[in-house]
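Researcher: Hi, I'm a grad student and pretty new to this. My advisor asked me to get structures for two proteins we've been looking at. I'm not sure of the right format, so I'll just paste the first sequence and hope you can take it from there.
Model: That works fine. Here's the first sequence with its structure tokens right after it:
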Amino acid sequence: MSLRFAMVTTFFPPFNFGGDGIGIERLCHGLLRRGHHVTVIHDEDAWRNLAPGREPPPKVHPPGLEVVRLRSRFGLASNLLTQQLGRPVVHGRRIAQLLRDGRFDVINFHNISLVGGPGVLKHGDALKLYMAHEHWLVCPSHVLWRHGKELCTGRECLKCVLSYRRPPQLWRSTGYLERELRHVDAFIAMSEFSKAKHAEFGFPREMEVVNYFLPDPPRDAAGPPPAPGPSPHARPYFLFVGRLERIKGLDDVIPLFRERITGADLVIAGDGDHAAHLKQLAAGCPRVRFLGRVASEELARWYRNAVALVVPSVCFETFGIILIEAFQQGIPVVARRLGPFPEIVEKAQAGELFTTPDELVAALERLEGDAELRARYGQNGWRAYVDRWSESAVVPKYLDVVRRAAQRSGRAELAARLAAESPR
């Protein structure tokens, strides 16, 4: 029952920055393991424009995964034209040909902001899905972070995009996006929170929810979380993992380890344009350690030996994949009571939430001092990862969204072929 899937996205490993590219790659691999063929079409120009002078590490894709990298001699102009006109100007003809000639059963659009904008949605005759890894459908800056300094509670889009030093997208005020959405058969949000936020900001279509996921455990799913092993750090520590940006909330956390939290350290894994400011904020404090970028194999060791993962983001995330990474490694999380984090923590019963600095300090001290509580949260998180956020749990749900979309659109043969993979 092999199907042909096309994934259209701006970024894809190794030409990617954040979690969306990794999430797409995991979806591709999950489909391959179920016998399907996958073609990824992504825009190499976009990555090179945003990471000038860098070369990504080499990447070998598994058999059955075809990756088409779009690159042109126009470089930045190609992406700027797409951003401004909302259509794939430079690569449009090639994308249209790839989607027409690929004999695809399903085309899944992901982050299309620079690979084609709304204008790419009309290409191809297959069943079409759109997966909202960001809030781009309702927000020109993608993240609902208004003026680069606050949560967006109401539209001030022109003033906001100018504060980001980006040219305004005039097509957003013409109804063009809404007209192109008619080509899509199903829309997917990454969390119930993100689905609700799209509706709040006027997105006119119903959305399904399919979460991010991690690979299945390499052991019996009934087994315990992985053993910690030797700790890479001499003292107890809390772990932060992510890009070092203002919206990730570390500005609120680092001072607490200077002034109030003395029993454990803060270890920060990641890098970004806010790193210099954060290092200055932590200067002279021995309880804060910066690791920089950490390879995934090494990062697992840092996860397993941490007291807990700290997730202090101050923006509206669409999911929060680092939370389920912590659950996969058997440690609890302490997350800000914002966005999708309450949804994830409460479903897993594997951590604590905070709003104020006092609540954060209390949660950290409680976890640092209570090994039994940490173990209970760790076991709960492991079970939730296996049952809710593993490949075996999520990919069938994704395929069921495809099946139901095929039924609604009158593609009975495709729906029948997918029926065998529906969740039990």
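Researcher: Oh nice, that was easy. Here's the second one.
Model: And its structure:
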Amino acid sequence: MTPVPTLIYDLDLPALSDLLKSWGEPAYRAKQIWQGLYQHLYNSPEQFTSLSKSLRERMAAELTFIPFKVKTYLDSSDGFTRKTLFELPDGNLIEAVLMRYGDPADNPQISTSATSGRGARKRRTLCISTQAGCAMGCVFCATGQLGYKRNLSSGEIVAQVMYYAQMLKPQDEVVTNVVFMGMGEPFHNYDNTLAAVDRLNDADGYNFGTRRMTISTVGLVPQIRRFADEQRQVNLAISLHAADDEERLAIMPVNKRYKIDEVLDACRYYVDKTHRRVTFEWALISGVNDTPEVARKLAARLKGLLCHVNAIPLNPTAGYAGQATDRERAEIFKQTLEQAGIPCTIRMRRGIDIQAGCGQLAGAVGK
């Protein structure tokens, strides 16, 4: 039976060094390959022209650089969002989304000169997946409606970022933010997700700042506490979506195991440990969780906690009858929170015309 090639992005630098050593290569070769991967964004052995032909041939035979193929992609009509559906070798589908912000066309008050170059004000945010499918079963989420397939390896997570970084490079653009908010529950795949974070953050490699990464969880309490104890600088977001247990359980089955009070206690522990703010994600569902009464109830629960609420009108899915809140109701919700001392932002919905919510494209294609 032919051995399955190792995904090179699954290797950290020590593991890559050990592999090269076992091949009889000098130690410095690992650093050359590492920098080629993450600084020059090479994605095939042929691009490593400083290496010997024999080493490149062995890399081609025993390593793989691309762990998926592009099944399809969709661009939004405004040109700001691209959603890519990847097919893994085992047939599972995952999604990643590129969202562009800060372009002159997006905001006429920002000049072209102000948005050019690496230090540009324009943002290129990636939303990437950590699992194929999801076990959490949130009723309004297309990924939750698909069910759990499997965890992604750390390299399969990293490769999504590299794919878009390679795409942006010819346009003289760079990834500016990465959010682990695509398909799957990142803390259900904790070790691989955080290994991917470490690989992206490596100072000798991609050197992507942890403060430009955000991990979103539905509220897995032990993992929130572990994350706090590790004192990481990665941003933490909690998908809350309801202010009392009965309402949350109706849309998020995880609330049967971890009640809101337990989740908020873990968040307080996180803030005490790290002195970092927690973001609460809130999908505004018309007539369900978007009323001033709900906002006041939420504000009472969050009082005294260093936090911010990111509210975004729901991305409708075929498997859930709920509809997005309109702009007026969203603004009233925001004002009610702010009057109670809780900062709130109404986030812009991106890619609605291409079903950019996580799992929507995989669900449509996989049927």
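Researcher: Is there anything I should tell my advisor about the second?
Model: You could mention this: The longest strand covers residues 93-101.
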